[in-house]
Design goal:
The chain is mainly β and 68 residues long. The chain has a domain of 37 residues. Helices cover 0% and strands 18% of the residues. The chain has a two-stranded antiparallel ribbon. A hairpin with a 6-residue loop joins β1 and β2. It starts with 26 loop residues before the first strand and ends in a 24-residue tail after the last strand.
């Protein structure tokens, strides 16, 4: 049995980025964690409000969502 496979090759040119400055805005969000239902405060660079707090973010021992 033959399968037709298409192999795509892309070439990338090397370039350098000129030195510049960026302004990063750190925000403090107060919200209810979707994993543990606790009121949490999280400092982040994200544009929107995070769903999970820092303590249960991906930890199986502290977060209910790991058991689902």
């Amino acid at each position: 049995m033959k399968t037709n496979q298409v192999i795509k090759t892309e070439e990338y040119k090397q370039y350098t980025v000129r030195e510049h400055q960026r302004r990063l805005f750190k925000r403090v969000y107060k919200f209810v964690c979707a994993g543990c239902d606790r009121k949490v405060e999280r400092e982040t660079y994200a544009v929107c409000c995070p769903s999970y707090g820092n303590k249960c973010n991906g930890k199986k021992s502290d977060c209910r969502r790991a058991n689902n």
